[in-house]
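Exercise: predict the structure of this protein bound to flavin-adenine dinucleotide.
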Amino acid sequence: MSLVHELSSLLPAARISTRVADLEVAAGDESACQPVRPDVVVWPLSTDEVSRVVGCAWTHGVPVTARGAGSSLEGNPIPVRGGIVLDLSRMDAVVEVHQEDLQVSVQPGIVYNRLNEQLKPWGLFFPPSPGGSSDVATIGGMVANNASGIYSVKYGGTREHVQAATVVTGTGHVLELGTRSRKTSSGYHLLGLVVGSEGTLAIATQLTLSLAGLPQGRKQGALTFPTEKDAATAIATMMRYGVDLAAVEFLDRRSIVALNRYRGFGLEEQPSLFLEVHGTPDSVDAVFETAQAVCEEQAGRVIVLPDGQNPWDVRHFTTRAIQALKPEGKTIRTDMGFPLSRLPEVVEHSYAIAERHGVVLHTFGHAGLGILHALLREDPADTQRWAAAQRAKDEMVGFVLSVGGTASGEHGIGLGSQKYVAQEHGSSLALMKHIKRVFDPKHILNPGKIWPDEGVDG
Ligand SMILES: Cc1cc2nc3c(=O)[nH]c(=O)nc-3n(C[C@H](O)[C@H](O)[C@H](O)COP(=O)(O)OP(=O)(O)OC[C@H]3O[C@@H](n4cnc5c(N)ncnc54)[C@H](O)[C@@H]3O)c2cc1C
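Solution:
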């Protein structure tokens, strides 16, 4: 029996497609990686359906790639080996709010902003909001990439909030991982392995997340600085002093210029920080004043955004604004993570490297977490500049790895950052490949990701 024919015995025909338009949507993501069409797309509605589809793929030895919204930036959901794309976007229900425990159980396809809208009446929220994709990213995709966001400075990334999950392994078996207990010392942390595994170990069909209470008091602000290094030094100092910031986002001067061009925000064209403080209505002013005092030591100056704009409404467009500067180009980006004290040095080095290679750099990110995105927008048709931008990226990542950092702070490895994995993980990469085989013996779950595709034994 053909694969599609067998899938038709598992799901209604309306939720299986081989139409070119559907295959095209499932082929790519938001990265510059080459899209690859799958053979078929399916839209399951339950754990049981996911288990049956994966079981069928296991029997046929056919690849299965989970997909949320396809907003990844490293090629993570691209089905490079074809096969089945399991689009989980229709599994988007809130299953149960455990208000007294500050937890929620959800299906994986629910979009981040929609979840928080539904949690608002309960006085709760799921904090790790991805800066520019909170309106599209699904919780399943966030868990699989271990995404983070503007509030991760105070509340942590996605991994810190995943309590329990129902998952389907590469054989189609259903496992319950984790518990709703806040703390456990029981057994291996299998749940922690699945979070951040980019759909290569198992497919999540239900997730229980820990939440935070909506803050009673909230204060936002923005500051400008004479140089990028001054802004970076201010962040590193605030974090070292333990200033209780909910969010501190760094935008270099070029990113601000790009935002002004893109939407006419009317921002002062200087390196900037956007801040937010959470607490009681009384406490937030005091914390903000401390932050301001630290920033002033680095010649930082509090500014009022034109027309009382919310900093996050502006920040949301950063990636798109930089892309719009060169519509014919594609983006080479870093997703560097590093010890916070090295932030000023990472910023300085990145500019020096870009200048040496003759390419134009834009930097921004959740710098309070020690994450910096450096974007190089170039036209791949200009092969010399494209190669120069690649070399600049390699050097920037090489530098953060040399100071104890990581090639991916939040976007995952996917396809785009594979060449750094061996250097970062050394001999433990072999153990990762063994673990993959235990969860997915036939290597059918999102094959070709995280490490270069020489197979699990390579
Ligand atoms: C403008 C812009 C700004 C962004 N800003 C941020 C940011 O601030 N922080 C950040 O972390 N990211 C950011 N991203 C990247 C992206 O939005 C996140 O990584 C997001 O979590 C991906 O979610 P998704 O639903 O689109 O997942 P997809 O891209 O569809 O999939 C992501 C990975 O998860 C796997 N997957 C999907 N669902 C499941 C499931 N249920 N079970 C198992 N595996 C699954 C896929 O196979 C794939 O490997 C940004 C992207 C854009 C375009």
